[in-house]
């Protein structure tokens, strides 16, 4: 059986220092960044959802790379094996900052971050997108069941011109360092875009069990166990009497 290994690494975003003078400075003009727009939506229902990311910008002579940094709470998870399979099948590029359990419930899990590298949309210049599967965790049952709301905070957007060695200075955006690609083998300078009209969070509603319904089941299990013990005792006594009776005959 083929085992897929998905590389995980902790990353750090830090402000970049001034670059050397002999590096080539390039990239879009300051006004171009006003054309950048991002949307985040949730598709599907139940425990298995999809996060839909789209970044739209005016066309540029140079290819623009986009990286979405998404912080996710303990109530959801991403399946690293599924992500590896989708990377082979569809080209989806997602890097997780830590190992994520696929089985632990929400109250035994921690939050994590995902780095989502967007891809150009076919036939649509200036549009970058990604569809990322995300799964709900089981939550503690409540007294009445119902639904649990899980809030996923708005993502951060990082952009960089593909061929630029040094990003232009004086822009109203912060220069940070992050992995250049999903392979996480080198670090590049990115511009973290400020002032995007993105909701503070998106919400998932996940079904929650009703623990009052578990009481009769637990009571039945207890009765069955007690009945089994009583039956075992009776059989032991009967067997003992049978042995005593056989010994008396001799």
Summarize the structure.
The chain is an alpha+beta fold and 250 residues long. It contains 2 helices and 13 strands; from the N terminus they run ββββαβββββββββα. The longest helix has 36 residues.
Q: Output the strand order for the largest sheet.
A: 5-6-3-10-12-11
Calculate the terminal CA-CA distance, rounded to whole Å.
65 Å
Strand segment tally: 13
The residue fraction in helices comes out at: 10-25%
Instruction: Tell me the series of helices and strands, N- to C-terminal.
Output: EEEEHEEEEEEEEEH
- Poorly predicted spans: 1-25
Q: Please outline the major beta sheet.
A: 6 strands, antiparallel
Number of helices: 2
The coarse silhouette is: elongated
Average residue pLDDT: 80
Q: DSSP strand (E) fraction?
A: 25-35%
Radius of gyration: 28 Å
Structural class: alpha+beta
Descriptive account of the structure:
The structure is a single chain. The chain has about 250 residues and is α+β, with helices and mostly antiparallel strands. About 20% of the residues lie in helices and about 30% in strands. It is built from two helices and 13 strands, in the order E-E-E-E-H-E-E-E-E-E-E-E-E-E-H. It has helices at about 80-90, 215-250, and strands at about 35-45, 50-55, 65-70, 75, 95, 110-115, 120, 125-135, 145-155, 155-160, 175-180, 185-190, 200-205. The strands form three sheets. It has a six-stranded antiparallel sheet. Strands 1, 2, 4, 7 and 8 form a five-stranded antiparallel sheet that branches. Mean pLDDT is about 80; it is low at about 1-25.
